Write a sequence for this structure.
């Protein structure tokens, strides 16, 4: 048999063998990959107990820190922290050296370099009196001021329109007793230098517990609204979609009850 006649037979045999080879195994779906953070944010913070502070282990903690960590986790973002004074943090936010700060009020000037989240916390103030003396006080703050009670406040602290409007009236100016630092107000109350003090409820709860004076002070059923606070994001370093994610995360945490649980841990 000639080579010319043999070659077609060889080629046909090779093709038949190739057709009989089993198909290669299908690729198996890979195992689910762990969820990873797809954004990295630097948060600037200024110590203010119990909202933000360093633990004995040198870790950043506090009410606002816990809330924002929960929001970041819900938004699939990772946080790192930079400590500085408030005015310096605003300057760093403006140029994009930090990505966000907490506890911010909205102003026209800040809108030029920052984006704001929905309000994540309302700022309110409560009134503390000596234990057993609640019955001596009227049911409204304006009536308490008009009655001549001495009111302990902190110098240069903004308590909201309801308080400042009375502070500015000459006939009531003597009713307000000013302290350079907030903690002095508790001393003045217990020493009968004032009759009532105004304090942030979370700061009050923290200080009263830390000082061990829970049995010596009562809280009146009066709440003074100061305003809402927001997260403030740098326009230079943060995309607006990140702000949207944080807003959605806030709704989610409130719906799941996580938001309320964090707040309750810092109240008496």
């Amino acid at each position: 048999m000639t080579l010319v006649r043999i070659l077609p037979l060889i080629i046909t045999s090779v093709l038949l063998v190739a057709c009989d080879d089993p198909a290669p195994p299908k690729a198996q779906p890979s195992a689910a990959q762990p969820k990873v953070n797809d954004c990295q944010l630097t948060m600037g913070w200024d110590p203010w107990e119990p909202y933000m502070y360093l633990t004995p282990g040198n870790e950043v903690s506090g009410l606002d820190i816990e809330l924002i960590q929960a929001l970041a986790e819900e938004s699939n973002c990772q946080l790192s922290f930079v400590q500085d004074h408030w005015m310096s943090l605003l300057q760093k936010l403006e140029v994009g050296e930090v990505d966000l700060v907490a506890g911010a009020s909205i102003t026209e000037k800040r809108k030029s370099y920052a984006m704001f989240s929905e309000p994540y916390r309302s700022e309110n103030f409560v009134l503390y009196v000596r234990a057993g003396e609640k019955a001596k006080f009227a049911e409204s703050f304006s009536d308490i001021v008009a009655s001549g009670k001495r009111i302990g406040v902190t110098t240069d602290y903004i308590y909201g329109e309801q308080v400042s409007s009375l502070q500015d009236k000459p006939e009531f100016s003597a009713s307000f007793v000013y302290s350079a630092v907030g903690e002095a107000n508790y001393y003045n109350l217990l020493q009968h230098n004032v009759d009532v003090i105004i304090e942030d409820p979370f700061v009050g709860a923290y200080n009263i517990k830390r000082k061990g004076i829970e049995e010596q002070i009562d809280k009146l059923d009066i709440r003074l609204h100061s305003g809402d606070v927001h997260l403030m994001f740098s326009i230079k370093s943060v995309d607006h979609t990140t702000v949207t994610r944080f807003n959605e995360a806030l709704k989610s945490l409130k719906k799941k009850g996580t938001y309320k649980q964090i707040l309750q841990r810092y109240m008496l």
Q: What stands out?
A: The chain has two domains: 39-121+228-264, 124-226. The CA atoms of residues 105 and 207 lie 24 Å apart. Residues 1-36 have pLDDT under 50 and may be disordered.
